[in-house]
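Board notes (copied after class):
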Amino acid sequence: MKCQYCGRDNPDGETFCECGRPLRLGGTSSAPASTGGYTPSSDSPFASQTLDSVKRTRSIPWAPIIVVICALIGVGVFFGLRWLQGKHITDESSWKTIDEPLFSITASPDLDKGEMLTVQGGAEDLIGFYTSRLAGFDVRIRKYTDPEKEVYGKLSAADFAKAQKIRTVKINGQEVKYETRAGKNYIYAEYNRHCINHIKKTDEVWYIEAMFPTANCYYIVDAYCAQEDKDAYRESLFKWLDSFTPKY
């Protein structure tokens, strides 16, 4: 008798093939290949089996796979945004103009307006503070009295530095020299400083401090980044300062 499942020839009278499947369906040896009318005996190893159960397929655990994929996407977005922030600092085509009542400046689009939490000291009023994870700037202003306008109101940045005796000063124990920016009406000094809350990456900050004299006041504009990023962002910070426009 030929097995309808595996095709093996079996001796007449056998109930099960060597493959383990039943040979007699519906009580005859010539039953059709269909199992529709077959009811196996209780002692058959296939008593509760069907063809569907014999041909089981292995299911795929989709839930953990989806979790891993989402995690990888999240990590990619996180580091992608960080890379983009760094690129914005140096990519002039992405910069935006920040227009305030007393000044305007063109800088990275990632800067958010905030409040400076550290004490600056001095007689200047803080009128702008913008920061991000990697860089930022703040703006202070010192308005002249009427007598001071007569003395300082018409001076260039270089002459203002001489009149104020601002040439070489000590800041946090560092000897800092102010210089005139070529082709621009401001003086500047560069130095390192420990400052909390200026940028999110670190409290070790590298500064370019610039002074802009006008007919009515002088501005102090600090542009800064993480000390370790000085070489990467220095020229871009200078270009931010070059774009600074006093309005008072």
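Comment from the instructor: The chain has five helices and twelve strands. The first strand starts at residue 96 and ends at 99.
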